[in-house]
Amino acid sequence: MASQMIPIALILSLSLSLLPSSLAVVICEELPLDLCAFSISTAGHRCILESYRAKDGGEQTKNQCKTSDVVVERVSDWIETDECVRACGVDRTAKGISSDALLDSQFTGKLCSSTCHESCPNIVDLYFNLAAAEGVFLPDLCHARRSSPHRSMVELLSSGAASGPVAAASAIADEVAPPPSA
Asked: CB 150: neighbour CB atoms within 10 A?
């Protein structure tokens, strides 16, 4: 009888470990530092890794996991897998993210890979929104990356997200110039 209890207990504990994370409560401030970045709290806020100076006045900085103000639609209780972190080329130890990463061809290669794009919706959503804030549509960037990696960088740089003085002067001239006569 005792020998039958071991397989049942093993099956029960294995099945409980495979339950979705929605049954867990994710509080950013309680996450271990190596799981903080790319996680989403129960309340739907992104968790971020931040540095702070120790209260003792020393030079040493320490890291902490904090709840950001960014709310993620339709996702909560999410701790990104190590497989997705590797597949998408992101770094859990980085403090903050930047759209500059989208200019790195190695990074966009991983981010746009089918492994990342099809299996890691949280990371893709994060960079989709980051790209959109720069005036870039991530699916277009990934398509351009697949068809011509060097051209995709040119398209990103010329997306208009960071228009220079010539573009600004042209836009002003267009606004004040009288319409052409018909």
From this structure: 9
